[in-house]
Specification:
This protein has 445 residues and is an alpha+beta fold. The chain has helices at residues 75-90, 121-130, 142-153, 176-186, 203-212, 226-238, 344-348, 352-375, 379-396, 399-405, 427-435, and strands at 11-18, 21-22, 28-38, 58-65, 96-102, 106-110, 117-118, 160-167, 191-197, 217-220, 242-250, 256-264, 268-269, 275-276, 281-289, 292-301, 310-321, 327-340, 409-413, 418-421. The strands form four sheets. Strands 4, 5, 6, 7, 8, 9 and 10 form a seven-stranded mixed beta sheet that branches. The two termini are 17 Å apart.
């Protein structure tokens, strides 16, 4: 483990948890890589632009669904205005920001001059006055909202760019291809948290937006909870210190990196997002960081070797891209090893961390499979998958997911995964389980 040396920059560390021992002929190496950022505050050191108080400069675009469905019930639009006002109040002085009204087109609400405002008591007050003009009507074309947010966010020379997106309906006024093209265009340019309010939106659309833009997704089933949720999201955004951190993985000749997955705080497969970074090295995007810790699962296939041999299977480091196209190394490194042994006890042991997160990844998968089967009427298949989910949630101590599962199934025996599907399930409960299915609990070290 190594730490970044400059005291003004958040210190990153990398810890590797694995069983490095393989039996003769063994080829698969699994490791959990824990990345931790601590001691933020000021960036300095030329890492990225900063405000006068030394904190990283930031820009935020808040995208509010103003389609016709936001009028049903009438309190929904009022709650959305109040939530946006709460988010604006949470902006720290010096943050660039804009508010966007989203329908089948995207419209600037504030500042409305094709650019961004800079947060101050005056601009926050003006923004909240402008929110009174938000009115519902029209359709939903989320790709247009994202493209406008990208244009506005890119107008400022800042270190961190972030979006908050609220929708209450399905993306019915543009094609899935148009939304995908917008997400591809915005990926890597800003991060975005997405929220679905009520129960008339599509879970896969909202979670897909957050996944593509390295943000979080969640449901706010009761619009009255929007203000608290928006405040939390903005507080988290204001706590970010470093943008565009990439996990750089180097592997030696003869090895194959089978996958790289984030496994905590949520499951997210980033394998396909690799960009080449020199001979036998690739970068995997992780988005923006504040004071926090995340876990990643690496699976490496190594060439077989004789007993007693050992090799470096992978080297993990952290980098941040620079304007000149180079990458700044954040000084933290972890090593994944492979050692061949005839000690059966050593070679057959499974790292507790690897075992835990393998179970958490399966938990997310079987929840989605079970809910999909339930939707198409395969109740036996759904019972089997959701029973397995109950078993995994119980064994891993994932109490939050276990509680959500209990809204969909009656648990007979959690240890064996014996359950019965409930005959009546509230739509909000089913959508909450689906939206939060990828959230994991940290392994107890």
């Amino acid at each position: 483990m190594a730490n970044f040396a400059k005291p003004s920059v958040p210190r990153f560390s990398v810890d590797v948890y694995q069983n490095e021992y393989l039996p003769e002929g063994g080829r698969e190496v699994n490791a959990i890589v824990t990345v931790t950022a601590t001691g933020g505050g000021t960036l300095g050191g030329g890492l990225s632009p900063a405000t006068s108080d030394g904190r990283p400069s930031a820009a935020v675009a808040i995208m509010v669904d103003c389609s016709g469905s936001m009028d049903y019930p009438p309190t929904k639009m009022r709650n959305a205005r109040d939530a946006t006002a709460a988010a604006v109040d949470t902006l720290r002085d010096g943050t660039h920001f804009a508010v966007i009204a989203g329908t089948h087109v995207a419209a600037e609400v504030y500042p409305g001059d094709g650019g961004l405002a800079v947060a101050s008591p005056t601009t926050r007050h003006r923004a909240k006055q402008a929110l009174r003009r938000l009115a519902s009507g029209g359709g939903t074309a989320i790709g247009t909202w994202l493209r406008l947010a990208d244009r506005l966010l890119s107008s400022a020379d800042v270190a961190l760019r972030h979006g908050i997106l609220l929708t209450d309906g399905r993306n019915e006024h543009e094609s899935p291809e148009d939304l995908r093209a917008a997400l591809d265009a915005c990926a890597g340019r800003f991060t975005c948290d997405a929220r679905g309010v009520g129960t008339d939106w599509e879970v896969k659309e909202v979670t897909g937006i957050a996944s593509a833009l390295l943000g979080t997704a969640d449901i706010v089933a009761d619009p009255a909870g929007l203000a608290a949720d928006f405040t939390r999201m903005m507080e988290t955004a204001m706590g970010k210190e470093v943008a565009d951190v990439a996990l750089r993985v180097w592997t030696p000749v003869g090895t194959t990196l089978r996958y790289v997955k984030q496994v905590a705080p949520a499951v997210e497969d980033v394998t396909a997002r690799r960009t080449e970074a020199g001979p036998r090295a690739g970068d995997y995007p992780t988005g923006s960081w504040g004071d926090e810790s995340r876990d990643y699962h690496l699976c490496v296939e190594v060439p077989p070797a004789g007993l007693g041999r050992e090799m470096l299977a992978a080297r993990v480091s952290l980098v941040v891209p620079q304007p000149d196209g180079s990458a700044q190394n954040l000084g933290a490194q972890g090593l994944v090893r492979a050692v061949w042994t005839d000690d059966m006890t050593a070679s057959t042991a499974i790292s507790p961390q690897v075992a835990h997160y393998t179970g958490q990844a399966e938990l997310a998968q079987v929840i989605k499979q079970g809910l999909d089967l339930r939707k198409v009427g395969d109740f036996d298949g759904a019972t089997a998958k959701l029973g397995r989910a109950v078993q995994l949630a119980s064994a891993s101590g994932n109490a939050d997911t276990a509680k959500l599962l209990s809204k969909v199934v009656d648990v007979v025996d959690a240890a064996t995964g014996t359950v019965r599907l409930k005959t009546r399930v509230a739509q909000a409960d089913e959508m909450t389980l689906e939206t939060r299915s990828t959230k994991t609990v940290r392994v107890k070290k």
